[in-house]
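Marked as duplicate of an earlier ticket. Keeping the data here for the record.
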Amino acid sequence: MIDKTLVYYDTLKGLAAKGDLFYLDPVTLRFTIDVTGKTILNKSLGAQRGYNALADCMLNQIQWHQANAETNILESLNVANDLPYITTVIKETLRLFPPDSASRQGKLGVELVDDQGHHCSTENAIVFTIHTEMHRAPAYSKQPEDFLRERWLFPNSKTDDNLLPMKGAYRAFEIGPRNCIAQGFIMTELRVILALLARSFDFAPAYEEWDRLHSSRVGTYGGERAYQIEEGAAHPVDKYPRRVVERV
């Protein structure tokens, strides 16, 4: 995974040197494909370096539409399990921008009960859980629209100012028997990647620049310009135009 992250690092470094507007979403998707290929297939796909038939087919499927400045993490990989600040940032980002939703097959005798106490049969139904709506619902979290990484700092707090979502209301990796079995590994990956990259680059949004070139597409949703759209899974709208600067 480290070598794939270093390729991503070099790509961002080159973009920072050019100073041009670029699209962070597809650049990151190619990085993700490389990590997935090495982790799952034990194969270097080289998606970040150029065309690869398998990698590009995977990307087409994905886009189908209908994480300590004093530590060299390359030398101390165990530090990836002890990065509390980065962990809280990841969790809060996933709360506000979950990558997917979930569905379940309903069955006879299984009912859902809404907040008003109404019982709804699930027989002959597909039940969708919309994670974005659940994570941002005031009934389930305090200050749900605010990015508050501190809500994850004291998970065992019993005080009234506990900002954690209520039990069962945080589902970035789903919960129950169909949760993501790789969530621990994914969190470790995210911590390592952010620790390697966040110290070296500053990202700035370029939506205003993009909007001037595409005036018919200007808009926000829920106060967000980088709102999510469905492209197989959730992606930032307009491929997340950004500029990146390397720190010196």
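See parent ticket for discussion. The beta strands are 22-23, 102-105, 111-113, 119-121, 126-129, 201-205, 228-231, 233-236, 241-246.
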